[in-house]
Automatic annotation (TrEMBL), chain A:
SMART domains: PAM. It comes from the Eukaryota. It comes from Escallonia herrerae. GO terms for biological process: poly(A)+ mRNA export from nucleus; post-transcriptional tethering of RNA polymerase II gene DNA at nuclear periphery; transcription elongation by RNA polymerase II. PANTHER family: PCI DOMAIN-CONTAINING PROTEIN 2, UNCHARACTERIZED PROTEASOME COMPONENT REGION PCI-CONTAINING. This is PCI domain-containing protein. One of its GO terms (molecular function) is RNA binding. Coiled coil: none annotated. One of its GO terms (cellular component) is transcription export complex 2. Residues 216-402 form the PCI domain. Pfam families: PCI (PF01399).
UniProtKB/TrEMBL annotation, chain B:
Residues 1-22 are annotated as: Disordered. This is SAC3/GANP/THP3 conserved domain-containing protein. GO terms for cellular component: cytoplasm; transcription export complex 2. Residues 1-14 have a biased composition (Polar residues). Pfam families: SAC3_GANP. Residues 108-175, 222-403 form the SAC3/GANP/THP3 conserved domain. It comes from Escallonia herrerae. InterPro entries: SAC3/GANP/THP3, SAC3/GANP/THP3_conserved. It comes from the Eukaryota. Coiled coil: none annotated. One of its GO terms (biological process) is mRNA export from nucleus.
Length: 413, 439
């Protein structure tokens, strides 16, 4: 680090204070937000942090001048946060930032228009990011990571501030998305419910009014929740919304959406092209898609096993497992097609033994009783039209449309 | 929400640890603190088991057991939330699906060490409670309700203290094993339970003993709930059973979650916890049906955080296979797998699903079967793993008729339109027709 003189250090601090004061006086949200983004590693803030660490007690500078003193509650702890951040005390940095953010919220409440919304976004973002890093630090030294949980509570408070009738309310969705990220990271996903309810049922919120970027993120997370709960039509709707409104150049985001949308689409009978999987590096789904096309149960099981950890972690494993019935349907359909080519008049009668043989060829060991069981399920769930004759061990398919398509609806349970 | 006990903290002060949550070292020498005992005598608020010579206004230190406190349990789990954050707390309370309770906060002033029972007293209390399970003087529901409430109180006392300390609790574990083995239903399981516990054979007995205390009381609690649930389902008649069953399932799940937190608190000791895999598998089995989620949280979410070694364990693989069959509706494999592989406790948990799956099987067969060929009941009994004599009554429970031909063979006619799901899960409790699981 280059030599820093006391004079220069004081100058930097005063310059920051001036900027802060000006930003607020002129209601310049863009300027203000740059002064708050602790984790951005901006050269300006880093050099300020160095200055603070040298001077050690900037409070005198703040208190001496009236025009700075009114923001003391925001700036004191913000300085502490920066200092700690610079020397990599992330837990303390978070703690101090939360204090500053608290004071900021109080001021924000009093500012009438929504000029400082962008700055508020930065505060919300920083709360989350600093908390995440603080928790990593705490975990690495064997302490309990608890800052992210605190960040969640704080963000709820911020949400409360925005949930009013004025123009500030369009910021609520951004904060909601930060909350989603916190809850998903913590695994306390059920806590999303209350914010979702507020967004979707409160009369003050008009969903279309929110910025598009926030709507995409919101739909992405709520879509994922629907996937966890296996509400496929709702998941399809939300994730598709996110996909269509997502910035087409943002490949990483598109990939994230597709990661969850693909299993949903598969569940309603829509298969992606291999080229799509390749373009967005989602080749873990390749064999799943192939298994569905071929009616190859062994391939499906194998694909699930090969990527078990990955699928479990993203929460789509159980969704993919459920595709089994569709794979069985496909297999029986193939047998039917082959029989039709040999003898169209008798094709609609499929002996259970034939299915047993086909499965054996796929190295799946199933007896006739189990095949009958599977067939009865397929019939019950309308994946196959027809009936089975227990005595003669035969499935008799309907002459018309024996293998109804899903038509965008999931297999009924 | 996770129970935030930090097992590695060894300090216990009344003033509280850094999180602001009061940690207390209990000093109450009785099963029930004196203050509470005197108060409940005055108010005549004594359970039948606590009454001296049947007198509703008199008890003794040998009979009174501390009641579950009215403080909402959620408060304990929000251990890093200070009372000032009332707003968020209230929100969290409603999120658990419980009705809004006026927040009664536990401040360090209110928690008196003399009201909290230390580990030794809690062990004795639990032992006393389990002895009551054999009581034939009162109906099982009454016994259950009492034990149910009092074990919750034990959990509260455990939550408030740092139990994992220096005390060797080898004796404690043995004692608990004795108590629980008196539950005849779990006898086979306990017979094979290795009381010495340490499974990896590297001789670190002290470590394991140190952890096992609280751990085992949790485990015992879970067993209690599973067994009770099972017994509750056998009891017929009382309309009060159903909400009790619901509560029991909730408590069972809560105890399980606390137990999992204990397992996770010592990530290096997985090899010591021989039974962790089985206890983890219970969670999966409790969440088979996407409708009846005791915690309201999806299984997909839970599976994300299960350690790899547990995922690969025999018990978890069993549970996941059962899950797969259940969700696909594969009744044949579902029933066969359970018959062949389920442990006693797993079977207890699976009972209601077995009924559900059998009903589904019957409805599928009835729906898809050939009109002209009624289904022979012997075949149906093999399919449902049910004794033939039970199959007939089961079909009738499902609103379906059975027929008999000239030579006395019984059949289920196909395509009947009167199918309905059996009304009460608690009546007509058909055991799996199985040599292996016979009781």
């Amino acid at each position: 680090m280059a030599y820093l003189s006391m004079g220069e250090a004081h100058r930097r601090i005063t310059e920051y204070l001036n900027r802060f004061h000006d930003a607020v006086s002129y209601q310049d949200g863009a300027a203000l937000k740059r002064l708050l983004s602790v984790s951005s590693d901006s050269p300006h803030l880093l050099s300020l942090a160095d200055a603070l660490n040298l001077v050690q007690d900037a409070s005198r500078a703040i208190r001496q001048t009236d025009k700075y003193a009114q923001y003391a509650d925001i700036i004191f702890p913000l300085f502490r946060s920066l200092q700690n951040y610079r020397i990599k005390n992330l837990a303390d940095s978070y703690q101090a930032f939360e204090k500053s953010a608290n004071a900021f919220i109080q001021e924000f409440r009093n500012w009438e228009s929504a000029w400082a919304l962008e700055a508020l976004y930065v505060v919300a973002y920083e709360i989350r990011v600093l908390a995440e890093r603080a928790d990593r630090e705490l975990a690495s030294v064997g302490k309990t990571p608890e800052k992210l949980k605190a960040a969640g509570s704080f963000l709820m408070k911020v949400f409360g501030v925005l949930a009013g009738k004025g123009p500030k309310r369009v910021g609520a969705l951004y904060v909601t998305c930060q909350l989603f990220k916190v809850y998903f990271k913590l695994g306390t996903v059920h806590l999303c419910r209350s914010v979702i309810r507020s967004i979707e049922t409160a009369r003050i919120f008009e969903f279309e009014e929110f910025p598009i970027r926030d709507k995409v993120t919101y739909m992405y997370y709520t879509g994922r929740l629907e996937v966890f709960n296996e509400n496929f039509p709702a998941a399809d709707h939300k994730l598709s919304y996110a996909l269509t409104h997502c910035n087409p150049r943002s490949e990483a985001n598109i990939r994230m959406i597709l990661k969850y949308l693909i299993p949903v689409k598969l569940s309603i009978g829509i298969l992606p092209q291999e080229s799509l999987l390749g373009k967005y590096k989602l080749l873990e789904y390749s064999n799943v898609v192939l298994a569905l096309k071929r009616g190859d149960l062994r391939l499906l099981r194998h694909a699930l096993e090969e990527h078990e950890d990955r699928f479990l972690r993203s929460g789509v494993y159980l969704v993919l497992e459920k595709l089994e019935l569709q794979v069985y349907q496909r297999l029986v359909k193939k047998i039917y097609i082959i029989q039709k080519q040999k003898d169209p008049n008798k094709a609609h009668q499929v002996k259970l033994e034939v299915i047993v043989k086909a499965l054996k060829w796929l190295e799946m060991d199933m007896d006739v009783d189990e095949v009958e069981c599977i067939m009865s399920i397929l019939i019950f769930k309308n994946l196959v039209k027809g009936y089975f004759a227990h005595k003669s061990k035969v499935v008799v398919l309907s002459k018309q449309d024996p293998f109804p398509k899903l038509n965008g609806k999931p297999v009924n349970s | 929400m996770k129970d935030d006990q930090n097992a590695s903290n060894s300090s216990s002060t009344i003033d509280g640890d850094e999180k602001g949550f009061p940690t207390v070292t209990g000093t109450c020498p009785f099963m029930c603190p004196e203050g509470e005992r005197a108060q409940r005598e005055r108010l005549r608020d004594l359970a039948v088991f606590e009454r001296l010579d049947g007198n509703p206004g008199k008890t003794s230190s040998a009979l009174a057991v501390k009641k579950k406190q009215k403080v909402h349990e959620v408060m304990f789990q929000l251990s890093c939330e200070l009372p000032a954050k009332l707003d968020s707390m209230l929100r969290f309370v409603t999120e658990c699906g419980k009705s809004l309770v006026l927040p009664i906060t536990i401040s360090s002033k209110q928690v008196q060490a003399s009201d909290v029972r230390p580990l030794a007293v809690l062990e004795d209390t639990l032992k006393y409670l389990f002895n009551l399970l054999d009581s034939t003087k009162h109906p099982f529901e009454v016994v259950h309700e009492f034990i149910f409430d009092r074990t919750r109180s034990i959990r509260q006392d455990l939550s408030m203290q740092n139990i994992i300390g220096d005390k060797a609790v080898h004796l404690y574990e043995r004692m608990l094993l004795d108590s629980v083995s008196k539950c005849s239903i779990v006898q086979p399981w306990w017979d094979s339970y290795d009381g010495d516990g340490c499974s990896d054979g590297n001789g670190k007995n002290e470590d394991w003993e140190r952890e096992s205390g609280e751990h085992d009381s949790r485990r015992t609690e879970v067993i209690f709930h599973v067994v009770s649930d099972h017994k509750l389902r056998i009891c017929t008649g009382s309309p009060n059973i159903s909400p009790m069953h619901q509560l029991n399932m909730e408590q069972l799940t809560k105890s399980l979650i606390s137990l999992y937190n204990l397992y996770e608190a010592n990530p290096n000791s997985h090899s010591f916890y021989k039974n962790e895999a089985e206890f983890r598998s219970f969670y999966v089995l409790l969440h088979l049906s996407s409708q009846s989620q005791p915690t309201g949280e999806s299984l997909s979410l839970w599976l994300r955080d299960v350690p790899h070694s547990i995922i690969k364990s025999k018990e978890m693989c069993f549970a996941r296979r059962v899950l797969r069959y259940f969700r696909a509706g594969n009744y044949k494999r579902f029933l066969c797998t359970i018959e062949a592989e389920a442990s006693c406790l797993q079977y207890c948990i699976l009972q209601p699903y077995i009924s559900e799956v059998r009903a589904f099987a019957v409805s599928c067969v009835n729906y898809g079967g050939y009109k002209i060929h009624p289904y022979p009941l012997p075949d149906l009994s093999k399919l449902l793993l049910m004794k033939e004599v039970d199959v007939e009554s089961f079909c009738s429970d499902c609103g379906l008729e059975t027929t008999t031909d000239e030579v006395g063979k019984k059949f289920l006619p196909m395509k009947q339109t009167s199918f309905c799901h059996p009304k009460s899960v608690f009546q007509n409790y058909y055991l799996l027709d199985s040599q292996r699981l016979e009781r």
